[in-house]
Amino acid sequence: MLEGKKLLLVISGGIAAYKCLELIRRLRERGADVRCVLTGAGERFVTPLSVATVTGQRVFRDLFSPTDENEIGHIELAREADLVLVAPATANILAKMTAGIADDLATAVLLATDKPVMAAPAMNGRMWEHPATRANVARLAERGVQFVGPEEGEMAEAGEWGPGRMTEPADILTAVETFFAGAGRLQGRRAIVTSGPTYEAIDPVRYIANRSSGKQGHAIAGALARLGAETTLVSGPTRLPDPLGVRVINVEAARDMLAACKGALPADVAVLVAAVADWRVAEPAKRKIKKDSTKGAPVLKLVENPDILAKLSADNAGRPALVVGFAAETGSVVEKAKRKRLTKGCDWIVANDVASGTFGAESNTVHLVTAEGVEDWPPMAKSTVAQRLADRIADALEGVPARPTP
Ligand SMILES: Cc1cc2nc3c(=O)[nH]c(=O)nc-3n(C[C@H](O)[C@H](O)[C@H](O)COP(=O)(O)O)c2cc1C
Q1: Taking the model in full, what pTM does it have?
Q2: Is 283:300 a contact under the CB 8 Å cutoff?
Q3: Average pLDDT in the 178-198 region?
Q4: Which entry of 92, 210, 352, 364 is annotated as an active-site residue?
């Protein structure tokens, strides 16, 4: 049920806009309060009168309308909803959301909102598969926008078939209900997530690093925050935007990452996704090491870095109730993960085979190794892995007393 939930539905200008009337009807049947913003192109496909009739409320269309702005300003409109749903989401509106363009009421609201955003894309298959749209969707997902669909099917253009069809209203309704069922499950909980690689200095300009992009760790931090956890993300250097609603501490080296994690305690759960360098240079040079052919290549002496997973798992008063490690392995992944779980003293290991190009990719195939056994998850988007793991964490913490906040 959606009793008492406030939804702001942004209807942009796609042929699927007519399906919104059915979506609104279904949302209202479940008790949701639905307000609508129509884009200029949206009005070409569905009339404001129809939308006003099915919502039982006036429709918002004009950023510069003095009467609208007096009655409820665009900032208030953006903030008073529990969820902002963009359906259909055109290629155009997704591009504007990515770039932060706010040149009409719909996009101004989307830029001003501090509430969760869900989007149901709908467009021609070629538009959906265009690298610009792919990049926009990836960027928005990294920022925490949840996507529903699109589906594969017949396009509006006669005889065309492909991805880009808007998900049916009944399934969008399920996604909205699932969202509200999950929201708040981790309210009052504190989470620490690490993400990305670490940089270990060789000299002031060079460093040792690895190929971790941070996509999986950032997605997990966003998913935990969406379930209501007060989430701290300790991130090594990445090119990713900060996930919505997450406190981010940027670090470079493993020792800084450990210190930041310790500083973020107490926590109910720690998910250590970062690919922390096992070794660092014993004594990084204070000045740039100059190339000198007569002396040959420098020899680097490496020393072991602190083991963040083992340290946070150590059985002392500050241990989070649930410690989850990640294992990026090449070959015998599950066996190595089982061993790692025992040697590190953590509760779960999420293992993935990185031999097949997981680093930097959008999808991941993982195995969840717990004391109870091994679950093989099918290949899925990193954002879906994150959502599923966050749900499992919420299940595991049920009934466990929350750590007191410092
Ligand atoms: C008949 C017709 C159908 C369209 N259908 C779609 C669509 O399904 N998806 C889409 O992204 N754009 C579609 N467009 C293009 C958008 O309407 C156009 O990009 C517009 O600028 C979107 O504005 P908005 O995002 O502000 O609503 C269609 C255009 C026409 C003329």
Answers
A1: 0.70
A2: no
A3: 90
A4: 210
